[in-house]
Every structure is written in structure tokens, then in C-alpha cells.
Amino acid sequence: MTKILIVEDEAGLRQGLEINLRHENYETVTAGDGEEAIRLFHAEAPDLILLDLMLPKKSGFEVLDHIRKVSKVPVILLTARGQETDKVRGLRGGADDYVTKPFGVQELFARIDAVMRRSEVVTQSSKAVCEDSLIRLDPATREAAANGQKLKLSPKEFDLLMYLFKNKERVVPRDELLSRVWNYRVDLNLNSRTVDTHVTRLRRKLQKAVGTDAAVIVAVAKIGYRYLGQTSGPATDH
Ligand code: CA
């Protein structure tokens, strides 16, 4: 059973969430302040956390910061209307998503489902080494190599290459990369040039290691990017 830690100082909302989530067969634990949230995070090992930002004792940001130092547990922020900068700050701080108060329970359930699905995909696939004739990515050690040559990639470049590699049968749209690799919600309207800048750097590094003009990652105009791998070089064995 999925265990959800609800962190909310407003008692009415906290209880309402608890009732609704239990009704949907989630197990719940609740905290009314930031310190209690951290204590319960350690004591209860929840599968997901709903985190209010304005909290007594410790703010939601401090709680998130504490959690992200030790865990990748999915966190959904409960934010107030008009706190756009808080949302961005929270997402940059490692939150997976947010809902804006007042929100409907159906929207919350949908967000919980999406975040859980995403985190399951990541956990299951994050263990396996990604490898083809050109590159090797080891998610456990975060080591990357192209043509047997070690690549010095930033954490985001590593994640980006891994995501493109895993989806190499198709063109991956920029918006998808923003939401999957950067965890940004598209409606925050963050600049997709972030993706372009990272891909450019990544391609440069790959090209240097591969040493040919063959494109390892191709840009598809107005859509996104696709990993091609080794497109030229010695023919395969017959
Ligand atoms: Ca609050």
C-alpha cells in the first residue's frame, strides 16, 4: 500500500486530505509543522510526500532541502495561488510537482498517479547499464563513455543522454525533456532553450570523443532531439 506523508499546518485541509486519500486506499501519516515532517519522513519512510510550503518551525523549503539530501522520494508541493516564484524555487529544489490551493481532489489524485508512475519508471530503469556500440552509461556510478573514452558529463547532461538513449526509437520533444529530465511543469513556461543549451554541450563532448562528423544526437526542427548512436564507421559483421 502506498504511504503518503501529508504535511500541512491548516488542520481542516490536513484532515480533508487524510480522509480523501484513505478513501482512495492510500495509507496516510500527517504532520502539522516542518520539524514533525522531518521526524515522520525518517520514522515512516513514506512513498510520497505532500508538502505545504508555509509551515511553522521549519518551512517547506527547509523540509524539502533536508529530504533531498538523503532521498528521491516523490514530493508534491501544496502552494498558494500567486506564489509563482515559490513553485519555481520548489521545483528547482527537487520537488516533483505542485498543486495550487484550492485544488480539487481529482486533480490531486491525478498528480499523485503521474508522479508515482514517473518515479517507478525511474527506479526500475535506473539500475540497468545503457550500452550500444558507441556509448556506455552506468547509472549506478554515473560514469559515461563514448568509444571507450570516458566522458565528463554534468549530472543533467548524463540524465539527458540517458533519457534520449532510452527513447532512441523516436524524436523526444523539448517539453518532454523539460518535464522528465528537469522535472519542470510545462505550464510554468520555463525556457526550452535550457534544453538546447545542454544538448549543444552534450553533442560537443560526444563529437569530441567519437571524432567523426556523424551526428550522435540529431535535432529535429521545432520538435526536439533524437539519439542516433553510431551512424557511420565500420560496417557490421556479416
Ligand atoms: Ca501553511
Question: Quick recap of the structure?
Answer:
This protein has 238 residues and is an alpha/beta fold.
List the helices and strands and how they pair.
Blueprint: E1 3-7, H1 11-23, E2 27-31, H2 34-44, E3 48-52, H3 60-70, E4 75-80, H4 84-92, E5 97-101, H5 105-125, E6 130-131, E7 135-138, E8 143-146, E9 149-151, H6 155-166, E10 172-173, H7 174-180, H8 193-210, E11 217-220, E12 224-227
Parallel strand pairs: 1-2, 1-3, 3-4, 4-5
Antiparallel strand pairs: 6-7, 7-8, 8-9, 10-12, 11-12
Bound molecules: calcium ion.
Question: Can you walk me through this structure?
Answer:
The chain is α/β, with parallel strands linked by helices and 238 residues long. It has two domains: 3-125, Rossmann fold; 130-227, Winged helix-like DNA-binding domain superfamily/Winged helix DNA-binding domain (Arc Repressor Mutant, subunit A, Orthogonal Bundle). The protein is 43% helix and 21% strand. The protein has helices at 11-23, 34-44, 60-70, 84-92, 105-125, 155-166, 174-180, 193-210, and strands at residues 3-7, 27-31, 48-52, 75-80, 97-101, 130-131, 135-138, 143-146, 149-151, 172-173, 217-220, 224-227. Strands 2-1-3-4-5 form a five-stranded parallel β-sheet, sandwiched between helices. Strands 6-7-8-9 form a four-stranded antiparallel β-sheet. A three-stranded antiparallel β-sheet has the order 10-12-11. Helix 2 (34-44) packs parallel to helix 3 (60-70). It is elongated. It starts with a strand and ends in an 11-residue tail after the last strand. 29% of the residues are buried. Residues 9-10, 52, 54-55 line the site of calcium ion (CA).
